[in-house]
Amino acid sequence: MKAVVQVGYGSADVLTLKEIDTPVIADDDVLVRVQAASLAAGDYFGMRGMPFPIRMYIGFPKPKKDFVVGADLAGRVEAVGRNVTRFRPGDEVFGQCSRACAEYTCAGEDKLVHKPRGLTSEQAAAVPTSALTALHALRDHGKVQPGQKVLINGASGGVGTFAVQIAKVLGAEVTGVCSTGNVDTVRAIGADHVIDYTREDFTRGEPRFDLILDNAASHSFAECRRVLAPGGILMPNSGHAGMGYVVKAFALSLFLRRQGRSFVSLPNQADLVTLKELLEAGRVTPVIDRTYPLSEALEAFRYLDQGHARGKVVIVVEKGG
């Protein structure tokens, strides 16, 4: 099968499209014929090999042999292990796994759910990591309540476009911060107010927010806290900001009640089901910037590396539903 394999650390030039063996499923696994895979910040970090601890998973001093990139996918079940009860061959699924940028991959039964009705494979593949990150940040860590004022910095990115919509689902009044070219997109997905950061600095404005989800790291933590309401919290999401951003957020959170710490969003089937229901109800819609065929996956990573994607970047492996 064809797969995008990482052979080193650095720019997209460390990736190559290669013919490798189709994976063999274990008893608790599902073999998926991948139709689409989307890229996330974790793929960028993995490609760069930074922060350094990520190499403990990918490989040190270089990636493991035939290390296939990608973690989000949508596709069709090809075969199931003997302990799998939730799926059968032919089912359309989406979720998180390793080795997604390939014609076939294996995933644990608990990492997949049935594909939402009415969504294409490209749309479904765009959801898992970014939407789960937004859901966990706002619902679980930020504990957003109806009527609260929430600001999403980096509202047009992969996590940001889902965060705007999920904050609205939670009943918040949402302000999105983005560049001029993305204002209409952020408004179209439900933001009550949109700030064009090229014309206005939200940290110097009058509004006060109960929660700021910072996906962009474009201002210091002190500047962001300046526009928090009493009892408000600044929730950092590292994005492409790097390890220093994460460490500083953690250190400050030990002394400042309004400083949230960076968090790890772990995939789970229950929350994938929650997202599936929101998608089917039309309350959340994936925003896709660009799609690339598997043969042009390196170009997709080069585009991701620029850090200006509007919504998600998706690799189409096989044309599906």
Write the SSE topology:
Blueprint: E1 2-6, E2 15-19, E3 29-38, H1 41-48, H2 55-58, E4 67-68, E5 72-80, E6 92-96, E7 104-108, E8 112-114, H3 121-125, H4 128-141, E9 149-153, H5 158-169, E10 173-178, H6 183-188, E11 193-196, E12 209-214, H7 221-225, E13 228-236, H8 243-253, H9 269-280, E14 288-293, H10 297-305, E15 312-316
Parallel strand pairs: 9-10, 9-12, 10-11, 12-13, 14-15
Antiparallel strand pairs: 1-2, 1-4, 3-5, 3-7, 3-15, 5-6, 6-8
Helix pairs in contact: 4-5
Descriptive report:
With 321 residues, the protein is α/β, with parallel strands linked by helices. 27% of the residues lie in helices and 26% in strands. The chain has helices at residues 41-48, 55-58, 121-125, 128-141, 158-169, 183-188, 221-225, 243-253, 269-280, 297-305, and strands at residues 2-6, 15-19, 29-38, 67-68, 72-80, 92-96, 104-108, 112-114, 149-153, 173-178, 193-196, 209-214, 228-236, 288-293, 312-316. Helix 4 (128-141) packs across helix 5 (158-169). The relative contact order is 0.17.
Radius of gyration: 19 Å
- According to CATH, the fold-level topology of the largest domain is Quinone Oxidoreductase, Chain A, domain 1
The helix/strand series, from N terminus to C terminus, equals EEEHHEEEEEHHEHEHEEHEHHEHE
Total beta strand runs:
15
Total helical elements: 10
Q: What's the CATH class of the largest domain, please?
A: Alpha Beta
What is the CATH H-level superfamily of the largest domain?
Medium-chain alcohol dehydrogenases, catalytic domain
Kindly report the average pLDDT value. 91
Q: Distance N terminus to C terminus? A: 21 Å
The name of the CATH architecture of the largest domain is: Alpha-Beta Complex
Strand content: 25-35%
Mind describing the biggest β-sheet?
7 strands, mixed
Overall 3D shape: globular
Structural class by helix and strand composition: alpha/beta
The number of domains is 2
Unreliable sequence segments? none
